[in-house]
Automatic annotation (TrEMBL), chain A:
Spans annotated as Disordered: 603-627
Record PANTHER family: ALDEHYDE OXIDASE 1-RELATED (PTHR11908:SF132), XANTHINE DEHYDROGENASE (PTHR11908)
Superkingdom of origin organism: Bacteria
Pfam families, per the entry: Ald_Xan_dh_C (PF01315), MoCoBD_1 (PF02738), MoCoBD_2 (PF20256)
UniProt name for this protein: Xanthine dehydrogenase family protein molybdopterin-binding subunit
Gene3D superfamilies in alphabetical order: Aldehyde oxidase/xanthine dehydrogenase, a/b hammerhead (3.90.1170.50), Aldehyde oxidase/xanthine dehydrogenase, molybdopterin binding domain (3.30.365.10)
TM helices/strands, residue ranges: none
Cited SMART domains: Ald_Xan_dh_C (SM01008)
UniProt KW keywords: Molybdenum, Oxidoreductase
TrEMBL record, chain B:
Keyword annotations of the record: FAD, Flavoprotein
Organismal lineage: Bacteria, Pseudomonadati, Bacteroidota, Cytophagia, Cytophagales
Alphabetized InterPro entries for the sequence: CO_DH_flav_C, CO_DH_flav_C_dom_sf, Diverse_Substr_Oxidored, FAD-bd_PCMH, FAD-bd_PCMH-like_sf, FAD-bd_PCMH_sub1, FAD-bd_PCMH_sub2, Mopterin_DH_FAD-bd
Pfam families: CO_deh_flav_C, FAD_binding_5
Name this protein carries in UniProt: Xanthine dehydrogenase family protein subunit M
Record carries keyword Flavoprotein: yes
Source organism per UniProt: Hymenobacter armeniacus
């Protein structure tokens, strides 16, 4: 990495990077000009509507589409009997791997029904309304069997997987002898935590518009967090070379993980378009959204904690039981954060899965870290009360100076500062250490806090810069803007890297025609793409420097390349700034209107260790470098609880994070606020109810699946600790999309305990779980 | 959603004639329920007869109380000074319901006919005795957290979802109905909705083709001093877990008249005469309110997940009475 330039060195005083620049796409969005993936008015466009299964398990006996096909404008009713065959399916392990499918099953490939809401037909018509009407007229008869709804069903087959998530994480982890350490620990706590099913529910549902440009060439306008991953999946599904599939996502109305993979409706739409020979657009209904793109699984965690009487951790033993689908071993890796958050000499974790008639669950914002932090951060709170210590003090006594799970030093960690600054902003010192005694009239007032942490996952990507001699630039990367500000922050990075004002830079993203960028997931996008953009700009300067030192008319003629630096668009000698020239003059003299550079940005362990991370085993890619790389933060929460009515309202909120370089103070603050609200939703109200007998959701709409509304959320205070991390990437950026919600549900639950003296370990904390609470 | 025809009418006579004359036809006013349920294929109407131009309008003081035209919008009624001042429980029940967008569309008559949010009713893949009589009620042993503890039967425990009906039940409101022959009749709100029994598909006494013309509410001291308290899973835009519509006339610490109805817990707006009997003539104290609340839920038959509503409904009622008597 010494050979790679770093933004810290080339731009010691950033220009617009870090500033609260307004969103560059904001105006287009509020004017309705930003085109989302279901908004491309293609000639000959047709509309696809899914017909989904009424049962959760069994077989399709017959499908009668005759009434549907008689409807005007109906072009086709595709079922497992007549859908054009894909080249591969994820129904076998080889196919699943090649496709990179999140679920080992593609509907419409057989008569088998494995989950409620599974697509059984795809109707195509010339209008959305006609397709919808026809879908209702398709008659499907089933041979139903009794389904299993969840791990809580006694009939569910339970097992301990060797690996979870297709090998990405271990099903069993052991560090030291936790059982012996637990048995000998003077203080022993055991707690059971449950987490409801949560659905991502982005404002924009899953949407696909597929158009076959030629018999072997497909373009898809897709609502996805990663155009390249979708491109790879579709090329494997359809047996096309990757370059014959183009995927476009210019704007995304949220994703939260459910758009991180290529789900069945996308390839079904492409196959339907092939079948009808016309472009097909398919948008999931809100109800279908609940059974089409995964969810956060229902789960129980048991956490045992052993400590000294002084509160020093001796052992942590974690067990998780959760529901998975008939095919896959998916579980969020909750134990990872529990293994590294505190200095604890021993650790053990087990995963247990139960097969049920549900689709495969998937990454949901801070997968693993969110529910895992709920368990460890509530148990640490318990320990603090048990020993009469302040919740911050118990965390400081167990502060991890290096990563206990790997023994590696941290690349950077500002958690102490986060605790201190958060406590100061919140007024933590005013907290009465006793639970259940602080009141505001009839309401019980509670303060709670929790630690947040999220890894810097290994990632890489590329970008291209085209700098024009007239002082403008176009910068490109096939990245995604989930709505969080990628367009804006990359414009800022490009502007500083090129010495231009941001309004002279246009950043383009969301197209596989552009240089390849990673999925916007796992909080890798900001750091990877910004580093790629920065490296591409450096490439431009290297080329221009070469031109200058060979140009007898340049003041830099015969200078050494390593002695030349760029400042504000001017190439000049590092030691004598007066010797140099503006890039425009140089380019004009050379007779070139524009110059292109490209660059590869590496993020996480791959940056520190070179390429080795890419070939490391899946479960250990993040450990390839010498350092353990994580963001850290702390949330502080005040709740007011009505003990008679059971209502919990968050009345104050402070989040302080150390997350490397913050690219835009405004969009970063908004993202932390958004993530915290996401976490408050999980803490207090989000729960998808699955009927225990029918394995079917009973509240699959936004009227009955509650997410927070404005009235649930107070003003929120967000700050960042200045953090300079040279090991993580060229920009020194850590992602913030996910850490924003890690620890949030624990902070809320801890505040509820402080208010009421009642520990609710079953999320969400709805009024029924508070009732019966009286002040202590 | 099925295809349907659409007819706009300007008189009650044309509207009722159209609905009675066409098989599968239904009225549409604000459309916030009927279109929702048609999109879910829960209701399948061949024709929608638009009554928005029928002149069932007006929010006015009458000789003995308040008259609200059935086609007034929730938002207009909820914000009307006459309602806010003299019938605060009605205003509050309206403004705590739904969202501003829905309140701007939904009519008063339609609101009283709003159908349950029971998840089994709203998904045609499930059996449901209300939607498909005789098919069964999976809610009894299923997801019943927000279903009714009062007025249920083995056939159905679906909650009446509305707020306005609860306020109107408390205040002795009377509905004026008109049928296809132009014949009008008056039905007290408390008799308008019916408990499910063995026929949960029948939710009101409204006859086919019959329209709600208006709602009248008698003026009273307990109407002027009234309030609506709604407890829900989030601070706004949610159906009630439990709600209480209460009216009190307290003089010298003694309750002269009281009105009590509960929402979110009954299969219909749940007026509690038993609670009112305990309150009437008693001192306005928490002990009285507690006794009244216990009486209000005496017949509760909770299921596994909605047991908490027995306590919550009482606490909600007590809190409403405490706040009202302290105001």
């Amino acid at each position: 990495m010494e050979h790679e330039p770093a933004f810290f060195e080339t731009s010691p005083t950033p220009g617009v990077v870090g500033k609260p620049l307004n969103r560059v796409d904001g105006r287009d969005k509020v004017m309705g000009k930003a085109k989302y993936s279901a908004e491309y008015p293609l000639p000959g466009l047709t509309y696809g509507v899914l017909k989904t299964s009424d049962i959760a398990k069994g077989r399709i006996q017959s499908i009668n589409a005759s009434a549907a096909l008689k409807e005007p404008g109906v072009l086709a009713v595709f079922t497992h009997l007549n859908l054009p065959k894909p080249a591969k399916t994820p129904n076998d392990a080889e196919g699943k791997k090649a496709i990179g499918a999140p679920m080992g099953f593609l509907p419409l490939t057989s008569d088998a029904i494995h989950y409620a809401g599974q697509p059984v037909a795809l109707v195509v018509a010339d209008t959305f309304e006609r397709a919808t009407q026809a879908a209702a007229l398709v008659r499907v008869s089933y041979a139903a069997e009794a389904p299993i709804a969840a791990y809580t069903d006694k009939r569910a087959q339970r097992f301990n997987p060797e690996k979870i998530q297709d090998g990405k994480a271990d099903g069993y982890t052991r560090r030291g002898d936790a059982q012996a350490a637990m048995a000998a620990a003077p203080v022993q706590l055991t707690a059971v935590y449950t987490h409801a099913i949560n659905h991502h529910n982005p404002m924009e549902p899953g949407a696909t518009t597929a158009i076959w440009e030629a018999p072997d060439r497909l373009t898809v306008y897709e609502s996805t967090q990663g155009v390249t991953r979708t491109q790879k999946s579709l090329s494997a599904y359809l047996g096309l070379p990757q370059d014959q599939v183009r995927v476009v996502t210019k704007y995304l109305g949220g994703g939260f993980g459910c758009k991180g993979s290529c789900w069945p409706h996308t390839v079904l739409t492409a196959l339907a378009a092939k079948g009808v020979g016309r472009p097909v657009k398919l948008v999931l209904s809100r109800k279908q959204q609940f059974t089409s793109m995964g969810h956060r699984e229902d789960q129980t965690q048991t956490l045992r904690l052993g400590a000294t009487k002084e509160g020093k951790l001796l052992a942590l033993i974690h067990e998780k039981t959760s529901t998975t689908s008939p095919w896959d071993n998916y579980a969020e890796a909750n134990s990872k954060i529990i293994n590294l958050l505190y200095d604890c000499p021993t650790f053990e974790s087990h995963y247990e899965l139960a097969r049920a008639n549900v689709m495969t669950s998937t990454f949901t914002r801070a997968p693993g870290e969110a529910p895992g932090s709920f368990a460890i951060e509530c148990s640490m709170d318990d320990l603090a009360y048990q020993l009469g210590l302040d919740p911050i003090e118990i965390r400081l006594r167990n502060y991890a100076e290096k990563d206990p799970s790997t023994g590696q030093p941290w690349s950077s960690k500002s958690l102490r500062q986060c605790y201190a600054r958060g406590a100061e902003l919140f007024g933590w010192s005013k907290r009465n250490p006793k639970a259940g005694v602080t009141k505001n009239g009839r309401l019980l007032v509670g303060y709670g806090m929790a630690t947040a942490s999220y890894p810097v996952h290994n990632s890489q990507g590329t970008a291209r810069v085209r700098l024009y001699a007239d002082g403008h630039a176009v910068v490109q990367a096939g990245a995604t803007d989930l709505g969080t500000g990628t367009y804006t922050v990359m414009t800022q990075v490009a502007a500083d890297s090129l010495g231009l004002a941001p309004d002279k830079v246009r950043f383009e993203l969301g197209d596989t025609k552009l240089p390849t960028a990673p999925n916007s997931g796992g909080s890798v996008a900001a750091g990877t793409v910004s580093s790629s953009v920065y490296m591409a700009a450096q490439d431009v300067w290297e080329r221009l420097t070469k031109m200058a030192i060979k140009d007898p008319k340049s003041p830099l003629f015969k200078a050494k390349a390593e002695d030349v630096a760029m400042e504000n668009g001017r190439l000049q000698l590092k030691k004598d700034a007066s010797k140099g020239e503006d890039f425009k003059a140089l380019m004009k003299r050379a007779g070139i209107d524009d110059i292109e550079g490209s660059g590869q940005g590496k993020y996480g362990s791959g940056y520190e260790a070179g390429q080795s991370a890419a070939t490391a085993p899946d479960a250990h890619k993040d450990e390839a470098g010498k350092h353990s790389m994580h963001s850290f933060g702390a949330h502080f929460c005040e709740v007011q609880v009505d003990p008679d009515l059971g209502t919990v309202r968050v009345t104050r909120w402070v989040s302080v994070h150390g997350a490397g370089r913050i690219l835009n103070a405004k969009t970063a603050r908004s993202q932390i606020i958004g993530g915290s609200i996401f976490g408050i939703g999980a803490a207090l109200m989000e729960a998808t109810a699955r009927d225990p007998h029918y394995a079917r959701y009973t509240n699959a709409d936004l009227g009955d699946y509650h997410i927070p509304v404005n009235a649930d959320i107070p003003d929120m205070t967000v700050e960042f600790i200045d953090e300079h991390d040279p090991y993580i990437n060229a920009m020194g950026v850590k992602g913030i999309g996910e850490i924003s919600m890690v620890g949030v549900s624990a902070a809320v639950a801890n505040a509820v305990f402080h208010a009421t003296g009642k520990r609710v370990r079953d999320l969400p904390i709805t009024p029924d779980k508070i009732l019966g609470t009286k002040s202590v | 959603m099925n295809n349907f025809s659409y007819l706009s009418t300007t008189t009650a006579k044309d509207a009722t004639a159209a609905v009675t004359g066409t098989k599968g036809a239904a009225f549409i006013a604000g459309g916030t329920t009927v279109l929702d349920l048609m999109k879910l294929n829960v209701e399948n109407h061949s024709e929608l007869v638009d009554i928005n131009l029928v002149p069932f309008k007006g929010i006015e003081q009458t000789a003995d109380g308040l008259r609200i035209g059935a086609l007034e919008r929730m938002s207009d009624v909820g914000e009307h000074p006459l309602v806010v001042q003299n019938y605060p429980v009605i205003s509050q029940s309206l403004l705590q319901a739904a969202s501003p967008q829905l309140r701007n569309m939904a009519s008063i008559g339609g609101n009283l006919l709003q159908r349950t949010r029971c998840g089994y009713f709203r998904d045609v893949a499930f059996p449901c005795n209300k939607r498909n009589p005789g098919s069964g009620c999976p809610a009894q042993e299923g997801e019943n957290r927000n279903l009714a503890i009062l007025g249920g039967s083995k056939a159905c425990i679906a909650t009446h979802p509305g707020d306005l009906g609860v306020a109107l039940a408390a205040l002795d409101a009377v509905l004026l109905l008109e049928n296809a022959k132009g014949k009008q009749r008056r039905v007290p709100l408390v008799d308008f909705h019916v408990v499910p029994g063995n026929t949960p598909q029948r939710e009101t006494v409204l006859e086919p083709g019959e329209l709600i013309v208006s709602v009248t509410v008698p003026a009273a001291a307990h109407a002027r001093k009234s309030m609506y308290l709604k407890v829900r899973d989030r601070a706004s835009y949610a159906f009630a877990l439990a709600s209480a519509a209460v009216g009190l006339d307290v003089q010298g610490g003694q309750i002269r008249t009281a009105r009590v109805a509960l929402g979110g817990v009954g299969t219909k707006p749940w007026r509690s005469v038993a609670a009112e009997k305990i309150l009437t003539g008693a001192p306005a104290t928490e002990a009285t309110f507690r006794a009244a609340a216990a009486a209000a839920v005496k017949d509760a038959q909770p299921r596994e997940q909605n047991r908490f509503k027995v306590e919550l409904a009482q606490n909600t009622l007590v809190r409403a009475l405490l706040e009202l008597s302290a105001a």
